[in-house]
Amino acid sequence: MKTQILLCAAMLLVSAQALCAQPATEPDITGAWARYPGFRTPPDPKLVPPPPGKLMLKAQYAGPYEARRAAERASDERGEPIAAAGTDCLPYGMPEMMSAIYPLEILQTRGQVTIIAEAMSQVRRIFLNKPQLKIGEAAPGYYGHSVGHWEGGTLVVDTIAVKDSVLGHSEMPHSDQMRITERFRLVAPDILHDQITVEDPVVLQQPWTFTFAYKRIPDYEMLEYVCENNHEYVDDKGVTHVRLQDTKP
């Protein structure tokens, strides 16, 4: 009898160890999300994303980049802002679509995570547990080619093949060698962080990391955003204007 009791205890111990060794269930990040912190509710300091790292461009890119920033500041002071991304009705692309100017919707399905931005109805697809293509094999696009996998409670996403014409966060230039690594993680039940690291051996002196945070917005229904509703236009000098009623430039 004593031997049987010891045997049963050993079996229970093994079962408990096996249960603990099983990977944690993937968190549910399906839903609509808005940029956090917002404009109305004071943020919780523990949930605010860390400050971004320093963008360090190589010399041949830093000069034109800073000249563009100076021109933007001067044009803003004159009340004639230079055209920004989106004014031409083209998608923001990656990674800027993740800045969530308008809400994002995340859908978790078997083998795929789909992210839809309300701004311009942009859609990107993250294919799970598949090998990434080599740089140069994937056709360039606005959102690139994304594959991902779960590491415990973190969704790790690798993106390549973003078109050279798509400017990055803060209008960062890039080459066809750019690689974007994201780490999605729930830091609270309804607060999601997306840590983004951009690598580009042609343009950057070192990888650049920044984090976007989002708050879940229950029962929100995504709206259609079509750029034909945009009243902005750009003149031949690159200055943005607002079209009044049905007048044309």
Describe the model.
By secondary structure, the chain is an alpha+beta fold. It has one domain (31-242). 16% of the residues lie in helices and 29% in strands. The protein has helices spanning 2-21, 59-78, and strands at residues 31-36, 104-109, 112-117, 122-128, 145-151, 154-160, 179-188, 191-199, 208-216, 232-234, 240-242. A hairpin with a 2-residue loop joins strand 2 (104-109) and strand 3. It is globular.
Reported for the largest beta sheet, the result is: 9 strands, mixed, barrel
Number of helices: 2
From the alpha-carbon coordinates, what is the Rg to the nearest angstrom? 23 Å
Q: Roughly what fraction of the amino acids lie in strands?
A: 25-35%
Number of domains: 1
Our measurement of the CA-to-CA distance between the termini, rounded to an integer number of angstroms, reads 94 Å
Largest sheet strand order: 1-2-3-4-5-6-7-8-9
Give a short summary of the structure.
The protein has helices at residues 2-21, 59-78, and strands at 31-36, 104-109, 112-117, 122-128, 145-151, 154-160, 179-188, 191-199, 208-216, 232-234, 240-242. The chain is α+β, with helices and mostly antiparallel strands and 249 residues long.
Please supply descriptive tags for the structure shown above.
single chain; alpha+beta; two-stranded antiparallel sheet; 2 helices; 29% strand; disordered C terminus
